């Protein structure tokens, strides 16, 4: 079973104090759900860090009460903290560009992800999130006083497929990091490295 050794290697890399800039992350074994690029130290191929579901889940799943556009009341989402993902890739920057399957882009200050439990949601009410319901990944903010603003709503990206880490003072050039072909599927297989 080649998946188990890859997951063990990934977990060892995450917890190793010897992890250094330029270390390669294990290659994803399943369909790619998320690509991270930009000002990062660790990648899967020297340029981009690609993540499948099991790699994301191995970072630790938390539960978050949030309201998506499909909900009138808060529901339970499960996912990975954005700050944890940024630590895994060794992000250096002040902002991330969160890019959706439809090329919608939102800038999220990294300081915001460090101060709030901003989550990359993998499941809604314990079930995978289909593309038709704005999945397979979403960026969601916790329900807290002061976080129900239009700016936060604009940063709550649905159908998340890419993250570009950069210095917020540098304008984003609008180029996607991963080419897509064909219609999006729920398993993220529309992403191609």
Explained architecture:
The protein has 193 residues and is an alpha+beta fold. It has one domain: Sulfite Oxidase, Chain A, domain 2, CATH 3.90.420.10. The protein is 20% helix and 29% strand. It contains 5 helices and 12 strands. The protein has helices spanning 3-15, 53-57, 82-89, 110-115, 150-155; strands at residues 32-38, 49-52, 62-66, 75-81, 95-100, 105-109, 119-124, 127-128, 138-140, 160-166, 179-180, 191-192. The strands form 3 sheets. It has a 5-stranded mixed sheet. Strands 3, 4, 7, 8 and 9 form a 5-stranded antiparallel sheet that branches. Strands 11-12 form a two-stranded antiparallel sheet. Strand 3 and strand 4 (75-81) form a beta hairpin. The longest helix has 13 residues, at 3-15. It is globular.
């Amino acid at each position: 079973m080649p998946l188990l050794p890859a997951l063990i290697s990934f977990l060892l890399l995450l917890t190793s104090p010897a992890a250094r800039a330029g270390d390669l992350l294990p290659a994803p074994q399943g369909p790619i759900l998320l690509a991270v690029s930009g000002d990062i130290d660790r990648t899967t191929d020297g340029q981009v860090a690609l993540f499948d579901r099991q790699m994301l889940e191995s970072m630790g799943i938390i539960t978050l009460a949030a309201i998506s556009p499909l909900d009138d009341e808060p529901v339970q989402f499960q996912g990975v903290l954005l700050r944890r993902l940024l630590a895994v890739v060794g992000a250096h920057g002040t902002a991330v560009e969160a890019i959706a399957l439809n090329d919608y882009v939102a800038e999220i200050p990294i300081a915001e992800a460090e101060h709030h439990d901003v989550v990359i949601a993998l499941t809604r009410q314990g079930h995978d999130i289909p593309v038709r319901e704005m999945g397979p990944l979403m960026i969601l903010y916790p329900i807290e006083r002061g976080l129900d603003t239009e700016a936060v709503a604009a940063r709550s990206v649905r159908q998340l497929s890419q993250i570009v880490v950069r210095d917020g003072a540098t304008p984003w050039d609008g180029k996607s990091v991963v080419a897509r072909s064909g219609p999006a599927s729920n398993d993220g297989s529309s992403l191609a490295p």
